[in-house]
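ok trying this again, last paste got cut off
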Amino acid sequence: MENTLIIGIAGGSGSGKSTITEILKKKFGDDVTVINHDNYYKAQHDKSYEERTKQNYDAPDAFDTDLLAEHLELLRQGFAIDCPVYDYTQHDRSDRTIRIEPSKVLIIDGILVLAEPKLRDFMDIKIFVDTDADIRILRRIQRDVNERGRTLDSVISQYLSTVKPMHEMYVEPSKKYADIIIPVGGHNLVAMEMIENRVRSHIF
């Protein structure tokens, strides 16, 4: 679909990216397709579970960016893709895929989507969600313990060893590429209204 509006939404882990994505998806339904960058973590079937738990998942080279770029091009041209599915409990790509159909609006959601020039080139609108670090770590603890089967100690250890330093090295600097910076994410009603109006004008 040559007239596909592609929106990239970046920001630190727990910043509220998914909340914005969910609001837009709920409001515009099938006219919005969402691709989560996390699903494009590289497969690590050759590593043991113990080895996989020690990998750095917050650096650009943890992702299969070439595959995502290939899939974005196919969707933009009007072709469906089979998106990989990442299993957080196993720290590995699963054997499942999700069939994603092209639509009028495509959202790419992920901490590092603005840090990759190859991905930025696809985007018509680049959004960075800017949320205080204290709020982000609390949300991450809540999510990883309740939804992803992690222990509190493992979440804190991962945050200090890779999440925080990689945020400072890659995620935060990518803010300079954003067209729109949104403090406090989906709770910023003024920013959400602006984005919704832009999406609405494209769809209708």
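PB: full thing came through this time. The two ends are 15 Å apart (CA to CA).
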